[in-house]
Amino acid sequence: MTPGRPVPPPRAQPISPVDRPASPANSDDLLAGNRLAAAYGAVSDNSGLVPLTLARRAPKDDDVEIAIDFCGLCHSDVHATRGEWGSQHYPLVPGHEIVGTVSRVGSAVDDFSPGDLVGVGCMVDSCRECESCLEGLEQYCENGMTGTYGAPDARNGGSVTQGGYSSAVVVDRRYVVHVPGNLDPAAVAPLLCAGVTTFSPLRHFNVEEGDVVGVVGLGGLGHMAVKLAKAMGAVVKVFTTSESKVPAALELGADEVILSADKDAMAAAGRSIDVIIDTVAAPHDLNPFFRTLRRDGALFQLGLPSEAMPPVNPGALIRRRIAYAGSLIGGIAETQEMLDFCAEHGVVADIEIVRADQLNEAYDRMVAGDVKYRFVLDTSTLQAPAKEANA
After folding, report:
1. Which of 118, 148, 241, 325 could pair with 96 in a Cys bridge, judged by C-beta atoms 3.0 to 4.6 Å apart?
2. Neighbouring-strand partners of residue 177
3. How would you classify residue 15: left for phi > 0, otherwise alpha for psi between -120 and 50, otherwise beta?
4. What is the dihedral of CA 152, 156, 158, 164, to 10 degrees?
C-alpha cells in the first residue's frame, strides 16, 4: 500500500487558439437548432420542484446529445435548490448523476455514437489548460470547473448549466463517459457522484487485498465505500452511531461494525485500520477515529459539515505519521476507470426509483435519512415539454 497513486492520463486536452469557439453575437445564436426538453426544477428557494421546459442547444462539433434515462438524486441537489449553499440562479434544474443514450453527436466526435449508453457526472467543463486539468484531475481545475447545473458556462455564452432532472442534455464529449452494458443503468447513476467520490481516495491510497478500510457513516457515500473497498479485497470496518444499522452494514459486506459511541469498542479497534473514509456531513469529533489508525494511516474527509468541526489534536497525527486529507469527486478518466472496475466486480448502488411527481417527497425523505441508499429519477415519468422554454 503506497500513498500517492499516479493519476490516470487525462482525456481533456487544452484547446489551441484556433479551436476555441468564438463567443456568439447574442444568446439567440446558441438557441438555433435547439431542442426542448422536459424537466423538473426549482424557481425559487422555497418553491419545491416543479415542471419546467428547457431549451437544450444543438450539438456543436465536440458535443454529445444524450436522451436521459435516469438521474440520481444527491443530497447536494437539496442544498442547492433550497438555497442552502448561498444564492442560486433560478430557475434551477438539478441533477449530476446522469445516465442515458446518445441521440446525436457533433461532427468532430469519434468516441461516441448514437445508441451508446453513457454517463455525465458532476462537471461538464473545466479550463483544460491548468496543471490539474492536464493531469486528468479536472475536478481540481485551478480556474474552476463548470458544474453540471447552476454554473455559468463560459464556452456557451455564459448561460447557466441545467442538470439531469430532464429528458435530454448536451455535453462536450470530454466530460462524457461510457457506461458498461452489463450494469443496471439506473443503479449506475449514483456511481457518477457517490461512486467516484469514494473510489478516488481508495485508489489514491492504493487500497489492495488485505488492507483494512474503515468507513464512517452508512448513507449514500458510505454504502458505496463499503462495496468498493470490499471489491478491492480490503477488510472493511464500519463505524456507526446507530445500532440499528449493524445488520445493514453486514449485509453490504462489512466484516465488522463498530459503534463509535462505545468507548470500549473504539479502544479495541485501536491501531487496526489503514485508511478511513469519513462520509458524515454533520460535525463530529475525529480524534477517536485517528486513534484507530495504524502508523502511516490516513483519514479522508468526504462529508462537508455545514458547521465547524471539533478541533483536531495534532499529537494524534504526529505520533503515528497519520495523514488527514480531503477528496473531491474524481476526474473524467478516473470516473471511467471506476465504472470499468464496477463492471468487472458487479458493483452498483442500492437504489429506489422515483417518479417525477415524487421528487419533493424524495427530498424530504433524504433530509430525514429515509433512503437505502440512493434515489434515482426515472425520466420517462417527466411531463411532455411545453411549446416554449421557461427555464
Report:
1. 148
2. 119
3. beta
4. -30
Inter-CA distances, 132 with 8, 13, 49, 87, Å: 12, 11, 35, 28
Whether the per-residue pLDDT at 18 is higher than 70: the answer is no
The per-residue pLDDT for 33 is 65
Rounded Cα distance between 273 and 236, Å, is 9
Altogether, the residues listed in the chain come to a count of 391
| Interval 329-349: pLDDT, tens | 999 999 999 999 999 999 999
In angstroms, the CA 193 to CA 178 distance is 15
State pLDDT tens for residues 124-139: 999 999 999 999 999 9
pLDDT score recorded for residue 374: 97
The pLDDT of residue 34 is 84
The C-alpha cell that represents 295 in the structure block: 502508523
Contact 100, 294 (CB under 8 A): no
Residue 129 C-alpha from the chain's centroid = 23
- Cα 109 to Cα 170: distance, rounded to the nearest angstrom: 13
Q: In angstroms, rounded to a whole number, what is the distance separating the alpha carbons of residues 335 and 61?
A: 23
Burial class, 4, CB count within 10 angstroms (exposed 0-12 / middle 13-18 / buried 19+): exposed
